[in-house]
Amino acid sequence: MSVATDLDLRPGQSVELLKELHILTREGKLNQDSRRKLKQVYHLHRFIEELLGDLPRHEGGPLVADHGAGKSYLGFILYDLTLRGQGSGQVWGIETRPELVARSQDLARRLGFERMHFLNIAAADAAHREDLPAQFDLVTALHACDTATDDAIAFGLQKDAQAMALVPCCQAEVAANLRQHKALALSRTPLAELWRHPLHTREVGSQLTNVLRCLYLEARGYQVTVTELVGWEHSMKNELILARRTGQRKRSAAERLRALLGEFGLQALEPVRFPGLPA
Ligand SMILES: C[S@@+](CC[C@H](N)C(=O)[O-])C[C@H]1O[C@@H](n2cnc3c(N)ncnc32)[C@H](O)[C@@H]1O
């Protein structure tokens, strides 16, 4: 592939897969429209591989759930570059659009990627499905729409995930609450300027959402790092939240989370999005 080295073909990588995903043209050249996606997926794959490398190994593992899988670029690349060679591990793609699920199932079958599974369900329903394994090692969600990232976190907690790698999409729930209640406790302070204009409400809502998610993960026993996925020129939705389970629930994080919900008038979200906080 005659492209920048970070997008080069990896040893043993399936060219057929890349063509099927339209990352490569039929002639084997990089499809310029896919460049951005490929860069994001490769970066996330690198982080995921590192996370997986630190996890204790177990028979049949690692089990990975990818929420809001879309065309499953991430799942396929992870399987091809990491799990295929290991001869162990599964990827479960969770996606609400049936045609994308059918397409991924078909592609996995044709490529012989037999430890890839795709379910046509919402992320919120995945935790309660009996046809999914009881435990997962790692949960990912790359630009899963709106609250699907929150559902992925809830899934990870339910499934005792050792690690999570989340790149949130826009989330409208917190901004809608901000708009409705105008964060009354702060409305007479200069801080209210931060969400006076609708565009700022959306941005502050999005930022606040991710801050709350991080605190929640810490309060539920994860060590969290927040970083950029790729350079900002490649994506506006670029925040990567990596969580590793330590089992130590941070009470201070729970207190901060509750305090923030209180300040912004978002207390109603606690039972919905942040259940099981330490008292
Ligand atoms: C922006 S796309 C990202 C797809 C893929 N992760 C990627 O980065 O290429 C978001 C995907 O999430 C799916 N989705 C939206 N809400 C969902 C939900 N609640 N549960 C599962 N999938 C969902 C959409 O159908 C869409 O395919």
From TrEMBL:
<keyword id="KW-0808">Transferase</keyword>
<feature type="domain" description="Methyltransferase">
    <location>
        <begin position="36"/>
        <end position="176"/>
    </location>
</feature>
<protein>
    <submittedName>
        <fullName>SAM-dependent methyltransferase</fullName>
    </submittedName>
</protein>
<keyword id="KW-0489">Methyltransferase</keyword>
<dbReference type="GO" id="GO:0005737">
    <property type="term" value="C:cytoplasm"/>
</dbReference>
<dbReference type="InterPro" id="IPR025714">
    <property type="entry name" value="Methyltranfer_dom"/>
</dbReference>
<dbReference type="InterPro" id="IPR029063">
    <property type="entry name" value="SAM-dependent_MTases_sf"/>
</dbReference>
<dbReference type="Pfam" id="PF13679">
    <property type="entry name" value="Methyltransf_32"/>
</dbReference>
<dbReference type="GO" id="GO:0008168">
    <property type="term" value="F:methyltransferase activity"/>
</dbReference>
<dbReference type="GO" id="GO:0032259">
    <property type="term" value="P:methylation"/>
</dbReference>
